[in-house]
Amino acid sequence: MDSLTQIVLGASVSGAVGIKPFGRKVLITGALLGTLPDLDVLLTYQTAIEDFTLHRGFSHSLLVLSLFSVFLYWLILYFKPALYAHKKSLFLVIFLPLITHPLLDAFTTYGTQLLWPLDIQPTSWSSIFIIDPLYTLPLMFAVIGLWFREKILRWQKINRIMLAFSCAYLVLGQVQFWNIQQKLTHDPIAKSDHLFIAPTPFNTLVWQVLSYHDDNYYVTFTTAFNDQPLSWQTYDTGRSLINSFDSAELQRLEWFSGGLLRFTEQDNQLIATDLRIGLTDYYPFSFSLAEDKNNWQEIKSQKMPEPVINLNKLTELMRFLSKI
Asked: Which residues cross the membrane (predicted)?
């Protein structure tokens, strides 16, 4: 999720367990810890694909963050033994903002390596967009109220309600995801080992569905309440371009994306695009993998410039929205 959301979530959960013994300064602690895992973006790796696939890795591991929480907890108690009187609340103030960060990220489409260092495919429950105001604003409202509180008990109650609402919103997204998934079992185009379902930007009402096959992938839009036949658009996966090419970076990208890649040739370079993140005509994560020198020759991957957002090109989405 975006940094603002992680900040207010961290502040909210810390406030829920620690504002009574520690005061409003606990909101700052929660906000800082809530955004801490994303500081891995400051690390620079050797290639663009490493930057892409190693984000949300060790810094988002439930094991690493749990151990770090214990270490930080004992470190604080060592220097401030007076806090032993509130040691349970202290641990929760540290642990909850750190651990809720990757768990929330796992509900998005990017992929979060919750079980790092185990070499398994990143977790992506794919039921909330990376920016969703309906999730973020209630938490922000509660945190601002706690900071400027005049009636602390009232705002503690409001904060708990907003946290419950945020959890319910995530559950609602999962329910819609499962509902759409069940409806797709009757659609022949959706019969694929690589079926991808994700909410469209800033909401959980309209969903994009991508059915990936060897030579083609199919895209449509729907809602959990839609009972009409789906209208699919067909696109070329471009996999014929890599019949004689393989590399460690390609394998890494295939693993990270679950194989949902489109391949194109541009300026004598082989380009791989992650189809999970973005919409038709706007996919922000594309990488150069090889150059055409009679045969593909591996190169150090580079991230391609992001396409310009042009709403006029998102014809299928706009057409679907007009019918709602």
From this structure: 58-78, 90-108, 128-148, 160-178
> What pLDDT does residue 294 have?
74
119 band by pLDDT with thresholds 50, 70 and 90 = confident
Quote the CA–CA distance of 119 and 113 in Å, as a whole number.
9
Q: φ, ψ for residue 251 (rounded to 5)?
A: -65, -40
Instruction: Please say if the pLDDT value at position 315 is more than 70.
Output: no
**For residues 113-121, average pLDDT:** 94
Q: Apex CA 248: angle with CA 118 and CA 108, to 5°?
A: 50
Q: Which long-range contacts (CB under 8 A, 24 or more apart) does 194-197 make?
A: 194/258, 194/259, 194/260, 196/109, 196/126, 196/258, 196/260, 196/275, 196/276, 197/126
Instruction: Report yes or no: 223 and 203 within 8 Å, Cβ to Cβ.
Output: no
Q: Is it true that the peptide bond before 117 is cis, omega within 30 degrees of 0?
A: yes
Q: Are 38 and 59 in contact (CB under 8 A)?
A: yes
CA distance from start to end of the chain? 27
